C-alpha cells in the first residue's frame, strides 16, 4: 500500500462510523447508507488532494459529499418511480389467454346444440349435477336425460372438430 492508501485507511477509521450514522439518519435505510459511505470514500480515493486537508477539512468534505449523494438519489428518476416493498404487490400468474380462447370456442360450440342437449351438457359438466338431478329438474324421465346428454356430447364433439379442435 502506498501513502495515499494508508491515508485513506486512516480517514476511513476516523470518519466512517460517524458518516454512516449521519447518512442512515437521512435515508432511514442501512443498506443505502452503506452504499453512500462507500461511494463517498471512493470519491475521496479518486481525489487524493482531499486527503491532504486538515482532519476537519476532510470531515467536512466527506459529510458534504455524502449529503449531496443522498440529495441526488432523492431527486433521481429511480427514486420517483420505484418503491421498495417487503413482497411483490401481486403474485405472478400463468398466461390465461389460451384458456379464455378455449372457453370461447366451447361456448360457441355449445350454442350450436339444440336447447335440450345444451341444457343437459351444461347442467352436467358446468353445474355438476347428476343425470337423476337433471331429469327431475327438466321434468323428463331418467332415460331421456341420459339420451340427451349422450347425443348432446356427440354433437358437441362434432361441433368442436368442425372448429378445428382435435380430440
Automatic annotation (TrEMBL):
One Pfam family matching this protein: Sigma70_r4
Domain RNA polymerase sigma-70 region: 13-80, 109-157
GO BP terms, alphabetized: DNA-templated transcription initiation
GO molecular function: DNA binding; sigma factor activity
InterPro entries for the chain: RNA_pol_sigma-70-like, RNA_pol_sigma-70_dom, RNA_pol_sigma70_r2, RNA_pol_sigma70_r4, RNA_pol_sigma_r2, RNA_pol_sigma_r3/r4-like, WH-like_DNA-bd_sf
UniProt similarity note: Belongs to the sigma-70 factor family. ECF subfamily.
Protein name: RNA polymerase sigma-70 factor (ECF subfamily)
Organism: Nocardioides albertanoniae
Amino acid at each position: 500500500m502506498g501513502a495515499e492508501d494508508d491515508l485513506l485507511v486512516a480517514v476511513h477509521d476516523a470518519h466512517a462510523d460517524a458518516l454512516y450514522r449521519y447518512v442512515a439518519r437521512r435515508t432511514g435505510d442501512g443498506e443505502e447508507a452503506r452504499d453512500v459511505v462507500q461511494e463517498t470514500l471512493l470519491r475521496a480515493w479518486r481525489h487524493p488532494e482531499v486527503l491532504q486537508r486538515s482532519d476537519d477539512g476532510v470531515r467536512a468534505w466527506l459529510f458534504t459529499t455524502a449529503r449531496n449523494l443522498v440529495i441526488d438519489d432523492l431527486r433521481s428518476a429511480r427514486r420517483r418511480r420505484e418503491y421498495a416493498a417487503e413482497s411483490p404487490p401481486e403474485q405472478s400468474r400463468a398466461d390465461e389467454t389460451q384458456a379464455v380462447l378455449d372457453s370461447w370456442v366451447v361456448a360457441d360450440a355449445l350454442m350450436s346444440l339444440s336447447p335440450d342437449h345444451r341444457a343437459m351438457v351444461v347442467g352436467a359438466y358446468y353445474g355438476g349435477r347428476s343425470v337423476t338431478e337433471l331429469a327431475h329438474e327438466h321434468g323428463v324421465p331418467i332415460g331421456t336425460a341420459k339420451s340427451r346428454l349422450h347425443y348432446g356430447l356427440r354433437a358437441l364433439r362434432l361441433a368442436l372438430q368442425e372448429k378445428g379442435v382435435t380430440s
